[in-house]
Amino acid sequence: MDLSKLAKLPLFRNKDLKLHYGIKYPEIYICRHIKKIKTIEKGKYTIHEDTLIYATQIINPSYLSFLSALNFYGYTTQIPLKLTIAITKQKKELKQIKFIKINKRYFFGYKKIKYGDFEIFIADKEKLLLDCLIYQKYVNISELNKLLKDNLDKDKLINYLNRINNIDLIRRTGYLLEINGINIYDEYFQRIKKVKKYILLNRNLKKEIINNAKWKINVNEGADYDNY
Q1: Residue 174 near residue 217, CB atoms below 8 Å
Q2: How distant, in Å, are the alpha carbons of 62, 150, 213, 218 from that of 132?
Q3: pLDDT digits over 137-149, tens only?
C-alpha cells in the first residue's frame, strides 16, 4: 500500500490497516516501514512529525488546553515542553504530550477547528480561561493577561460559571474580568455577600497584604491598590 494514503490520517491503528486497507498482518507491514511510521504508543501510529496533528486523536474525548492552547491562540510566547491535552481519565505522559485529567463535569467548552489538512479539538477561549483558573498548577495567572483582554464573551462565561457552579472560581474569574473591563458582579452579588473567608487569587503563591474586598480575594499575584 502506498504510504501517501496513511498521510491522510492523523493517526492509525492496527485494525485500521486491516479493515480499511486490507492488510492482513499490520505488525509486519509496520516493521517494513519502520523508518517512516512513528509509534505513538502501543497499537497507535502516525507518519506525521507535527504532534498537534494527532494529539487530540489519541484519546476520545480530549482537547488542547492550558499552556498549549494559550500558545496556539497567540496569548503567550511561552512554548510548553509538551502539548497539554485535557482528558477525563488518568493517562501516562507520552514523549511529547502531557495528559491532564479534569473532572467530567468540567469537560465542555471545546470545539473542532481546522489545522492544515486535519481537524483538532481545542478549548474555546472562555473555557480556556476557566481551565487555567481551576487547575492553576499548569499555568501562572500572569500568562492569562492577553487572553483576558481579548474580547471575551461575557454571556458565555456566565453560562460556563453557572454550569460549573463553584463560588471560588466565580470570585477569581470575576475579579480578573473586572480589572480587564468586564463586570459580572451583579450576577453573583447575592452569593458573594454571604462569603466570609478570603481566598488566594493564586493558590500556588503565599498570601500577600493586598485584599480586594469586593470579591473577597487576596491579591497575591499582581496588585489592586484601589481596593486595598
Answers
A1: no
A2: 16, 16, 23, 18
A3: 999 999 999 999 9
What tens digit of pLDDT does each residue of 115-131 get? 999 999 999 999 999 99
Residue keyed to cell 474555546: 124
Which grid cell sits at 76?
503567550
CA dist 200 to 131, 164, 170, Å? Answer: 17, 19, 13
Interatomic CA distance for residues 140 and 132, integer angstroms: 8
DSSP, residue by residue, 143-173 = GGHHHHTS---HHHHHHHHHHH--HHHHHHH
In this structure, what C-alpha cell is assigned to residue 71?
500558545
Per-domain boundaries in the chain: 3-49, 151-228
26-38 pLDDT tens trace: 676 776 666 678 8
